[in-house]
Design goal:
heterodimer, A: alpha/beta, Rossmann fold, ABC transporter involved in vitamin B12 uptake, BtuC, 4-stranded parallel beta sheet, 18 helices, about 65% helix, B: alpha/beta, 2 domains, 17 helices, 24 strands, globular
């Protein structure tokens, strides 16, 4: 009894979260494929090395810190120095620069005539030839050993910054895919989202430039400008929805037309140029981060949480599923079918607009060429996430998983050095495979075999 | 016919069951060449199933089909076609965008080396139309043809495929009297050419006019086969109905009160041409008539599902302006649609979600669904109705027909409507479930609700209604004020004309 129960639970888990499994398998594969020796760097590396040194060299040991003149190394050296001093050790000097700078510092210390206990390096500076034969060349220092943070083996893929990078890179597609999920659940499709990304990016940056004060725009002015871009796209979405409900034109056709219209509008507004007259702080959303998490990823998470609640807990969410599953039955049950359809297209437009704002912020400019082909990636994310193009089925969180599957494949292929043409081929095949898996899972092999016989 | 020669078609001991229903029990049927056999029976008697077995669409559970003496064991439509069986369904199976010619030769195109020989097809098509004596331009798309012309295209198609057996399922339902006369002439020509015709119709006048023999089906069994000259009309109706009705319907004592729902001169297109009716408190009004007589269309108008061309609807003396079902539901009207799969349920969602759909205003606060309340209410209703639910809130499509219908019932009972319209409330559900549905209707009536029951099952109409309206061609053809004294014959007379 017990094992069979466990089995049914497992098969249910697989049935409901098959795509999650695919995502995990992909992550596992790329973790394996990108396994490599890691050299701690940055602040974390500095802290680690400080601990190692203070355990090997008791106070009042003197340590020379050698780092390159980069941002990452500065963080490394800063944290290292702090850690050493906290342990009661003395940082005799901190070098930022080239081997020549290190030689100069060493010679300076020798002239002081005091003994040096250790030279703290990171993985790069430790290999500098300047430290070779130090005991013979500068005997007064007492032949200090070169120490560097202990290396360890860890997948490049699974490094925290890489994972955040994956999330950040997919944020635009994932945000737009929320709206697409709703439209597809309501048995429609919206091909205009790629163009709306461009339209919103152009409109927002244009508003910042022309009305918000250009490069000296305030945060409030930028916020209002971006909201302007989002509202504009929401209105375009509403228009598409109105065409679908009022005249019964297939959504494919309506949004295909709106795709051209919105793209053309974006080019007209921008006069074919990029708009980059925005303040430096415009990149807060796209490049900034809060508590080490990129702001775009935070926005994506908040939007997904809200959409999940909308679709699972609210009356409106229920209505969207009902309208997509059987519009006639929904209508005869008193569901305001037309309003529901207007809502999903309006929301989809607004979310595409939000995606455009994030993209403009990431790239610190708005251009009418943004978002080309994005509608296809967005639809792929939704479909891989398990939504049915015939409507009535799908989950917002499934779409998030679908988006991440795409992001992980792209990122993993970058890490493993697959060239970009091959990447497209692989991505296309993976999308096909994922959907095939979903079909098999839902209908079973027997259905597919029977279909072939007919 | 010479003695000893095998009949054109011989079906022996055909049985077929669907989950919960025995659709056919050991049915025998025989058709000779050059003969018209009428197949009659009530709705649900098994005529369509029998035809689908013949056409290869259903595999029988038991029994054998012989065509011209040869046993046919392969059960698929292509095989049946090759054996010379052509079925012309009531809803016609033509591709509307293709021309008459293209439809006739669909799947059997005349071609040479992959290239169509349109001119050869056209001349063959003209020859076929000439043979059956109708004028149809073979190059017109079928969507531009009248129903009668489309039928002719189907017949031409059957002839071009060398069919020896042609089945016509209610061919006259949507034809004018002149067109019916034309159709009969065609059938006589087919007879003369040695083709066997199975003619299915509710219209007994036609049966007596065109058929040589008649086979009666009842409850999935063949009850009689007679030469048409050896049977009277009354006898035929008795054979079709042939069962005692008094135990099938629960008894009740209705306290019929004042008028609640009143409709005056409802009109919509050709389907509803001036229907007036009223339903009183505690009353079950039966609305019946043949398929296509405008019953369902009338029900939809009362529910706001379609726009009125004219007429008015009042509930408890208040005039209603129904722009959508939403308005009707707010006003206190509910409709259980005839086709629960297409119109009653969102099949991909759970029974509970379907149940909640019209009731969400009560199960929600500020737009958030209070799932606990909904679950509790659904648990109460499903226990009360004895709905057998699948585990894990599986989609409602996994439920049996009877249980699906109970989910539809549950959702409207929960809504507590003042007027409930039941359109074919017991279609496709078994006898036990039917009885429960009837009891529910009686219970609602006893609580003073007004009930309009649209049904084509005459025993049901007679057994359940207090009063009966019979529709014919979009109008009320007659009212039977006291259903107790009514008979099926009386209803059929009004419905058939």
């Amino acid at each position: 009894m017990a094992p069979s129960k466990a089995q049914t639970l497992l098969s249910r888990l697989l049935a409901e979260h098959g795509m999650l499994l695919v995502l995990l398998v992909l992550c596992a594969y790329y973790s394996w494929a990108t396994f490599a020796v890691q050299h701690p760097a940055g602040a974390a590396g500095g802290e680690q090395l400080a601990r190692e040194i203070s355990s090997r060299f008791p106070p009042p040991a003197r340590v020379l810190v050698v780092a390159r003149d980069t941002e990452e190394d500065a963080a490394f050296a800063g944290a290292l120095r702090q850690g050493l001093e906290a342990a009661g050790l003395e940082a005799a000097a901190v070098v930022y620069g080239q081997p020549a700078d290190a030689r100069e510092a060493l010679e300076g210390l020798e002239r002081e005539g005091r003994r040096l206990d250790a030279i703290a390096c990171n993985q790069t500076t430790a290999s500098w030839a300047v430290f070779d034969g130090l005991a013979a060349r500068l005997p007064a220092l007492g032949g200090p050993p070169v120490v560097q943070p202990a290396s360890y083996r860890w997948p490049n893929f699974l490094k925290a910054e890489n994972l955040l990078n994956v999330a950040n890179q997919i944020s635009v597609i994932a945000i737009v895919a929320i709206g697409m999920t709703l439209v597809i659940i309501a048995a429609g499709i919206d091909l205009s989202v790629g163009s709306l990304i461009a339209l919103s990016a152009v409109a927002s940056t244009l508003l910042v430039r022309d009305l918000g004060g250009g490069e000296s725009a305030t945060a409030l002015a930028m916020t209002l400008s971006c909201l302007g871009g989002i509202v504009l796209c929401g209105l375009v979405g509403l228009f598409s929805g109105a065409m679908v409900t009022a005249f019964g034109i297939p959504s494919f056709i309506v949004t295909l037309a709106m795709m051209l219209v919105a793209s053309g509008l974006a080019f007209q507004l921008a006069e074919g140029q990029s708009i980059y007259q925005v303040p430096d702080s415009f990149v807060w959303l796209g490049r900034g981060s809060t508590l080490r998490v990129p702001n775009a990823v935070l926005l994506m998470a908040v939007l997904y949480a809200a959409a999940h609640v909308l679709m699972t807990r609210t009356v409106l969410g229920r209505y969207v599923y009902a309208v997509g599953g059987n519009p006639e039955a929904a209508r005869l049950s008193g569901v305001p079918v037309r309003h529901v359809i207007l809502f999903v297209y309006g929301l989809c437009g607004a979310l595409a607009g939000s995606g455009g704002v994030v993209m403009a912020s990431q790239l610190k400019s708005g251009a009418p060429t943004y978002g080309q082909m994005y509608e296809l990636y967005v639809i792929a994310a939704v479909v891989v996430g398990g939504a049915s193009l015939s409507g009535g089925e799908g989950k917002v969180l499934g779409t998030l998983i679908g988006a991440f599957i795409i992001a992980v494949i792209q990122n993993g292929m970058n890490l493993t050095g697959v060239e970009s043409y091959t990447q497209k081929v692989v991505l296309g095949l993976v999308i096909l495979g994922a959907v095939l898996l979903d079909t098999v899972k839902k209908r079973g092999w027997s259905w597919i075999l029977r279909k072939r016989g007919a | 016919m010479e003695a000893g020669a095998a009949p054109l078609l011989e079906m022996r001991g055909i049985s077929k069951s669907f989950p919960g229903v025995r659709a056919l029990r050991e049915v025998d049927l025989e058709l000779r060449s050059g003969e018209v056999l009428a197949l009659v029976g009530e709705n649900g008697a098994g005529k369509s199933t029998l035809i689908k077995v013949l056409a290869g669409a259903h595999a029988p559970d038991a029994g054998a089909v012989r065509i011209a003496g040869a046993l046919r064991t392969v059960h698929d439509p292509v095989e049946a076609q090759r054996a010379g069986v052509a079925v012309i369904y009531q809803e016609l199976n033509l591709v509307p965008g293709l021309t008459a010619r293209e439809n006739i030769f669909l799947g059997r195109e005349r071609s040479r080396a992959g290239f169509l020989r349109a001119r050869q097809e056209a001349s063959e098509a003209r020859g076929l139309f000439e043979r059956i004596g109708v004028r149809v331009d073979p190059e017109l798309p079928c969507s531009a043809l009248t129903v009668a012309q489309q039928q002719a295209v189907e017949i031409a198609k059957a002839l071009s495929s060398m069919a020896r057996i042609i089945v016509m399922d209610e061919p006259s339902a949507t034809l004018t009297p002149q067109e019916v006369a034309r159709l009969f002439a065609i059938i006589r020509d087919l007879k003369a050419a040695g083709i066997g015709v199975i003619y299915i119709s509710h219209r007994l006048d036609e049966v007596f006019e065109v058929a040589d023999r008649v086979t009666v089906l009842r409850d999935g069994a063949c009850v009689a086969t007679r030469p048409i000259g050896a049977v009277r009309r009354e006898e035929l109706i008795e054979l079709m109905v042939g069962r005692r009705l008094d135990q099938e319907f629960p008894k009740r004592r209705a306290a019929i009160g004042g008028e609640r729902l009143a409709a005056r001169d409802l009109r919509r297109g050709q389907a509803v041409r001036g229907v007036s009716l009223s339903v009183r408190s505690g009353e079950i009004l039966g609305l019946t008539g043949l398929v296509g007589s405008g019953r369902t269309e009338t029900a939809r108008l009362l529910f706001g599902a379609d726009r009125l061309d004219g007429g008015s609807i009042e509930l408890d003396g208040r005039r209603l302006e129904l722009r959508s079902p939403r308005d009707a539901i707010r006003a206190g009207i509910g409709l259980l649609t005839e086709d629960r799969k297409a119109q009653g349920l969102v099949l991909g969602r759970s029974p509970r979600e379907n149940f909640g759909l019209p009731n969400l205003t009560r199960f929600s606060t500020a737009g958030l669904v209070r799932e606990g309340r909904e679950r509790a209410a659904f648990a109460r209703r499903s226990a009360g109705l004895g709905i057998k639910l699948p585990p894990h809130e599986a989609a409602v499509r996994n439920l049996s027909g009877g249980n699906q219908q109970k989910v539809v019932l549950a959702k409207w009972l929960e809504r507590d409507c003042e007027v409930l319209i039941f359109d074919e409330p017991t279609r496709g559900i078994d006898v036990g479930a039917k009885y429960e549905v009837y009891q529910l209707m009686n219970g609602l009536a006893a609580r003073g609700k007004a009930i309009l029951m649209v049904s084509s099952e005459l025993p049901e109409v007679l057994g359940m209604s207090d009063r009966i309206l019979v529709m014919h061609e979009g109008r009320v053809a007659g009212e039977i004020a006291d259903a107790r004294g009514a008979t099926q014959e009386r209803i059929l007379e009004l419905a058939v004309r």
